[in-house]
Design brief:
Blueprint: H1 2-14, H2 20-27, H3 31-40, E1 53-54, E2 61-62, H4 69-85, H5 110-116
Antiparallel strand pairs: 1-2
Length: 117
């Protein structure tokens, strides 16, 4: 594993503008492993402008945090709407089997879990 990481780092030092796909093709490392190293901080995205990893909700390429700006804004507004609506019902914890989205292709939505309670 360390050899693969060193191969990636050496490749990126010579080709710092490479994309995820180019790094994977040149070094033989999987895209998933490359993303893991980025999230663990082993590859610093500030040094490599074309590297990115997917948003946890919609899979858009991002460089910081876990959610893209649009998903973060959407979830924040969903929370705000639900708290302002004052439904009065006390939310019960969900069973893990109920965590699947209700068919929304746009990723996780707070209202999905709130409405199932």
């Amino acid at each position: 594993m360390n050899d693969q990481l060193m191969d990636c780092v050496n490749y990126l030092r010579r080709n710092y503008r490479s994309s995820n796909e180019q790094v994977c093709a040149a070094t033989g490392v999987s895209n998933v492993q490359l993303q893991v190293w980025m999230k663990e901080g082993k590859l610093h995205l500030s040094d490599y402008p074309n590297l990115s990893y997917p948003c946890a909700s919609c899979a858009e390429p991002i460089r910081v945090h876990k959610l893209c700006v649009s998903c973060s804004t959407r979830i924040t507004s969903d929370i705000r709407k639900l708290t302002e609506s004052g439904s009065g019902a006390v939310a019960q914890p969900m069973k893990q089997s109920d965590w699947k989205p209700l068919g929304n292709p746009g990723g996780f939505k707070i209202s999905d879990r709130w409405n199932r309670v």
